[in-house]
Every structure is written in structure tokens, then in C-alpha cells.
From TrEMBL:
PANTHER family: HTH-TYPE TRANSCRIPTIONAL REGULATOR GALS (PTHR30146:SF109), LACI-RELATED TRANSCRIPTIONAL REPRESSOR (PTHR30146)
SUPFAM superfamilies: lambda repressor-like DNA-binding domains (SSF47413), Periplasmic binding protein-like I (SSF53822)
Organism domain of life: Bacteria
Keywords, sorted A to Z: DNA-binding, Transcription, Transcription regulation
Stretches of the chain forming a coiled coil according to its record: none
Keyword Nucleus: no
Name this polypeptide is given: DNA-binding transcriptional regulator, LacI/PurR family
SMART domains: HTH_LACI
Species of origin: Ruania alba
Domain HTH lacI-type: 10-64
GO MF annotations, alphabetized: DNA-binding transcription factor activity; transcription cis-regulatory region binding
Amino acid sequence: MAGAVRAGRPGMNDVAKVAGVSHQTVSRVLNDHPNVRPETRQRVLEAIDALGYRRNSAARALVTRRSATVGIVTSGSMQFGPATTLAVLEQSARAAGYFVSVATAAEPTPETMTEIFGSFMDQSVEGIVVIAPEERVANAARAASAHVPVLMLAAMDPQPGDPTVVHVDQRSGARLLVRHLLDLGHRDLVHVSGPLDWFDALARRDAWHDELASSGVHPREDIVGDWTAEAGYQAGRALLGNLPDAVFAANDQTALGLLHAFAEAGVRVPDDVSVVGYDDVQGSDHFIPPLTTVRQDFDALGRHAMEVLIGAVTGEPLVPVPVPPQLLVRASTAAAHS
């Protein structure tokens, strides 16, 4: 290869000099053009590797009018659903050939969302995904505008004028749990919900009540929780004086707290009371006893979200389909006593 290259960040001219080819040939290799001899392509790739060359994505976007970048807005929540959704979205975007720019809106106001969308526009993103587990995030996204497709990941029914919505079918998961408990013969039931400003919590609660009502079963009054094991523990202690047949915890962490409270008081699960959760968090199959729960297919959610977003970007829109969850029956549920 040719001689030394100037100090600083290497450019295409540096690659061309080291490889002994023209600037145009380097461009053809970078864009996977077929009219490049294999030995020349190999020489250019070796030069790129030796120099540590990275293409200037901003300059490329000016030429191709494509940045191959999507923006993702998250509230920064470390709860299982939003955190897992962010991870699989990034993986799915990269698998589809897109870079990802992530912005955190810890206090999601219309002003914050507008600022974030503006920053994304400055980066020439081709589309935006807003992870919206709460009403306030969705409202902020509704108030902001962008000149690219916007997708919301939220377990909500979209209103007229809303961005396209993709989600796991939270209602279906709750109905699966209700049917499981009813099939076991349980009729004295109670739900420990999540916080009611979260779409997932509302969808699970509403489906719980709708499915029970359709079967003529009237549950106890809900206990409102906050997704935490501590809330589940306190709910479990409150139930000790008058145990129900079964408890539907809005998520697995809440179920973990319930199991703790019951075990501490000598209540046997599932002999004395059945407990179900939601999410299938890592380790829920090793709770004592292993937890009956619902698994959300976040990998499928990420793939479908990117399919819908790319379809909007390319002018080939897809109709989003709710991602179905799966019931996992384990040892925390058993038939009701006759």
C-alpha cells in the first residue's frame, strides 16, 4: 500500500491514497457497487481497516437523501416493559440496517418533546418511535410535530390524529389469566393493579373486569399498586385476614411481594391461594413457587415496530397488528378447593 497519511480523522481521500485507487473507487466499495474488481475491493477494505475510517454519515445523507437513522424517545423508566422495549427496538433497528439516536424525556412535556423532535430533525432521522407507557408521554408526543413518520409504542386505543400505535395485546394477556383462574374453579378473586396512569395497567385491569363480568363473576375491589414488590407485599399483608381464592398481580414484581407476604405468614401458595403475575421477568420461573404469568414477546414487538415504521418511511404503509402474549402455567396456581 502507499505511504503515510496526514494526522487527524481519516477521510475517503486518505483511504484512496493508501489503497492506491481513486476517490470514486472508494465510494463504490462503500456503497457496495458491483463494478469493482474483487482484488481492488479487498485492497480498499484493508485500507479502511488499517486507517480506522468511518464514513461521514451527515455528508452521505446530503448525497443520498437518506440518513438510515431513526430517533427513539424514552421516558427513561427502568420498569421491565419500557426498558426491554428500548433494548429490542435498538436491536431491531440495527438488524434492519438503521442507526439509532436515543433521547430521554424524563419530564415529558410538549415543550420537551418538541425540542427532542427538533433535534432529531437536525440529525435527518427518517422516522421517530416514542415509547409511551404513560398518558403524559403520549400527550406530549401528540402535541409535538415532525416532518417524518412517528410511531408510538403504547397499549392504548389511538385517537383521531394520533401517530400510528404498535403494542403487545395487554388485554388478551389479562383475559388468558382470567380464563385460567376460572377454569381452576376460582371465584373469590382480587386484582392488585399497576399505577393507573400507565396504559398497561389500565388495559390489564379493564380486561380483567370485562372477562370476569362476561362470566358472571364479581371480584373484590381492586388494590392499586405501583409495579413494585413492596406494593405487592403490603397488599398481601392486607389480605391475610380474609384470603381470596386467587390474586392477579399486575406484574411479576408485585407477585413477588405477594409471595413474600404469604410465605412470611405461613400461607401456602397455591394450596391456600393461587397467585398469577404478568411479564415473565427473568427469574420468575424460580420464584417460590415458580410463577404462573404471561410472557410478552418483546422481540416480535421490536421487529413489528420497525416493519411498520420502515413501511411508513418508504411509502408502503402496513396496518399494525397487536402482538399476542403467551400464558405460562407454573406452580403458583392450582384448582380451587371443593
